[in-house]
Fold these 3 entries.
Entry 1:
Amino acid sequence: MAYQYFVDQWLPYKERFVYAWTNNVMHYSNTTTNRVESTHSRLKQHIGSSQGNFETCWVQIHALLQASHNAIKASFEKSNNVVQHRFSASMFYLLRGEVSIEVLDKILDESKRMSNIGTDSLMCGCILRKTCGLPCAHELNEFSLMGTPILPESIHPL
């Protein structure tokens, strides 16, 4: 009886419960385990065999981590050195070269909500602030109204 009630009355709304929970926790847009699973798969392919000893596995893991780290550094250097046209607006002036292109993209997407939200934090919901530590639509609108660029201090440090 209780099980059927749960299945009929609450289970249809399960996505809403998860959505409400995940939008109140800082997760930097990582809401699935796909990244971990794909990294694990890549690691297994890189090692090649389950028969290796500790030293050979360590060398393989270290090499994979170094390659990943180098790719991240190269991407960030590109972010620092290349000013893309879509970030030429004065609101991005202080962020260019300080944060990654991915962060600038997220802020740019959020800025498209500014005109609908205004400075009302309740209407905004502040989801980008809560989940990624980035300025949300109503904060961006406040910067715009003051005529100042987005301050680097408004970005949550990792």
Entry 2:
Amino acid sequence: QLKPGGYFVLSYLLSIVTPIFFIVWSLHCFILAALIAGFSSQSMICRAITAVWMVTYVVNIGTILMETMWKYMTSLNHARYRQ
């Protein structure tokens, strides 16, 4: 039998989180390999493009994290005022 709060819920959550983790991990490994290849290049143009791409990537990740934290904090504030 399935009971709320039992092992079924935990395994269900793990089946969602685990593939997402591996997809994100492989994406970061690909980006790291591209950065290593770009900065290892002899061409100054390739290095400059890689540097601009890296800065853009870091800014985008920072923006996503800040937006997520902002939504989380505002949801906590709304929950506190409803009580």
Entry 3:
Amino acid sequence: MENTNLEMLRKEVYDEAHKLRQMKGEDLEGLNMEELRQLEKKLEAGLSLVINAERAQLIKENQQLKQEMKMILHRGNSVTVNSELVNNVSIGSNSIPSLDDDSPNPTS
């Protein structure tokens, strides 16, 4: 009984590891067209979730930056800004210079 459970668990681990390798683009040679299409759909769904999470994070950071910029304008630039957030903002092809940068001409 215990041997049977152990063998079932080993097979399950092997199967899941094999699926993971296929998700990474490995061990695909044994798949037929339908299996490849199913794998592609799974990957697209996963990528969609990653893109949505990234988009939500960017929106959140953008809102934080806008709020900080409003506070700066409201207080006459007397507030300390979170330099990490400001350094990640770009407008067109020009980046907002680092707050730690002492040079008068920021480089792109």
